[in-house]
Design brief:
The complex is a heterodimer of chains A (282) and B (123). Chain A contains ten helices and seven strands. Chain A is α/β, with parallel strands linked by helices. Chain A folds into two domains: 222 residues, Rossmann fold (3-Layer(aba) Sandwich); 38 residues, no CATH class. In chain A, strand 1, helix 5 and strand 2 form a beta-alpha-beta unit. Chain A is elongated. Helix content of chain B is 28%, strand content 22%. In chain B, strands 1, 2, 3, 4 and 5 form a five-stranded antiparallel β-sheet that branches. Chain B is globular and about 50 Å long. The two termini of chain B are 26 Å apart. In chain B, 33% of the residues are buried. Chains A and B meet through strand 2, helix 6 and strand 3 of A and strand 1, helix 2 and strand 5 of B. Chain A: GO terms for molecular function: rRNA (guanine) methyltransferase activity. Chain A: Its main location: cytoplasm. Chain A: InterPro entries: Bud23-like, Bud23_C, Methyltransf_11, SAM-dependent_MTases_sf.
């Protein structure tokens, strides 16, 4: 199926039905929660201090709940009224705004200690009308410049998003840099198809000490992928019906020992060449 | 919910509206009180970011006059409690916020302000 952001604008895609579905799906919730925790980790807030955070594209408040749990106060913006309605029903504690992030924010300078955004940025990459203010670069510029001024110095903003190509990452990072942000992209599980997650980690200011760029989580397989591999292996064995690759050195030594015990003649003696591979050309 | 803490950080973001665009004026508001946990550290952290006169005026508009008109130098616990009440527990559920410079109206319904702009207002 094609990506949601290619189907319709967010306020239409996340209508009443989709908003409910999104919020009730436990798998969605789990993924959102994992990414929110990771984003918080990347934000690198001072510990034990309640911060005032901005959740960009807060939706029904799934990530906001986690911010609350961690002891932070937050405000959220989203463009889909249905999502915000679900958020109201779920009785969350953040302040909500109906706002198009591509139009920019009106927050006073230095309002927030940090910003997070989960699965949102890709929505800014599609133009809805031909009006000049609707072009992705224009909207991104407006978004990043107003966000930059709304954040404290020093602070961070972390965005998890789903880019379709490297060009998109390039576009986003270059505009963010022009807006005054430092930082760049962090990729978790870069070699996994399913677990791969892209985080844009932006810094406001650095003071005397430059902010350290965080590292992505390495390792190419998460649980799902590992399981997938085992299943693949088992399926292959069933088809061929016999076991493969058993004739390693241990197996050969065992067999030779057995033959000697039985008194078989002409069993080759064991040496350092036993069970070793030949060169491909001889 | 529009709490006064976010109202105090909110300015108008219409194209070209850069001076005198803060604070937004409340109009025809309905207010709801909702108790939240008192967090003195958080309030202390926010102090430097608050615009005191704007906060006092906004509090007046929603019918609360418990805070002193001038920002006191020393913050004792009692004052922090009051500040907490004004900032965190007063929720504006319905009404509107109006920019005093360009008169743009941000309607609030169900506790959610509509910050969307028309095409000609986008900067």
């Amino acid at each position: 199926m094609s990506r949601p952001e290619h189907q319709a604008p967010p306020e239409i895609y996340y209508g009443d039905a989709e908003a409910k579905k999104y919020t009730q799906n436990t798998r969605n919730k789990q993924i959102q929660a994992d990414m929110t925790y990771r984003a918080l980790e990347l934000l690198n807030l001072p510990s034990d201090e309640p911060a005032f955070l901005l959740d960009i594209g807060c939706g029904s408040g799934l990530s906001g709940e986690i911010l609350e749990e961690e002891g932070h106060i937050w405000a959220g913006v989203d463009i889909a009224p249905s999502m915000l309605e679900v958020a109201l029903e779920r009785d969350i504690n953040g302040d909500l705004f109906l706002q198009d992030i591509g139009q920019g924010f009106g927050f006073r300078p230095g309002s927030f200690d940090g910003a997070i955004s989960i699965s949102v940025l890709q929505w800014l990459l599609n133009a809805e009308t031909s009006h000049p203010t609707s072009s992705p670069p224009h909207r991104l510029t407006r978004f990043f410049t107003t966000l930059h001024s709304a954040l404290r110095n020093p602070s961070r903003a972390v965005f998890q998003f789903y880019p379709t190509s490297d060009d998109q990452i390039q576009l986003i990072t270059s505009i963010a840099q022009k807006a005054g942000f430092g930082g760049g992209v962090v990729v978790d599980y870069p070699n996994s198809k399913k677990a791969r997650k892209v985080f844009l980690c932006l810094f406001v200011g650095g003071g005397g000490t430059q902010q350290q760029m965080p590292k992505g989580i390495e390792g190419d397989d998460d649980e799902q992928v590992r399981f997938e591999r085992r299943r693949e292996k088992e399926r292959k064995r069933d088809v061929s019906g016999k076991r493969k690759n058993m004739k390693d050195k241990d197996w050969i030594l065992k067999k030779k020992e057995l033959y000697r015990q039985r008194g078989k003649e002409g069993v080759p003696r064991d040496s350092k060449f036993t069970g070793r591979r030949r060169k491909p050309i001889f | 919910m529009v709490r006064l803490i976010t109202h105090n950080l909110l300015a108008c973001h219409v194209k070209g509206c850069t001076t005198n665009n803060f604070p937004l004026i409340f109009r025809d508001v309905e207010v709801e009180l909702q108790e939240t946990e008192f967090n003195p550290d958080f309030i202390r952290n926010m102090l430097s970011r608050l615009e005191w006169t704007a906060l006092i005026n906004a509090a007046k508009q929603v019918g609360d006059t418990s805070l002193p008109p001038e920002q006191p130098d020393m913050m004792d616990d009692e004052l922090l409690q009051k500040l907490h009440h004004v900032l965190m527990e007063i929720n504006v559920t319905d009404g509107a916020m109006v920019c005093q410079n360009c008169n743009h109206i941000y309607p609030i319904s169900n506790g959610i302000p509509n910050m969307l702009l028309a095409e000609h207002e986008i900067g």
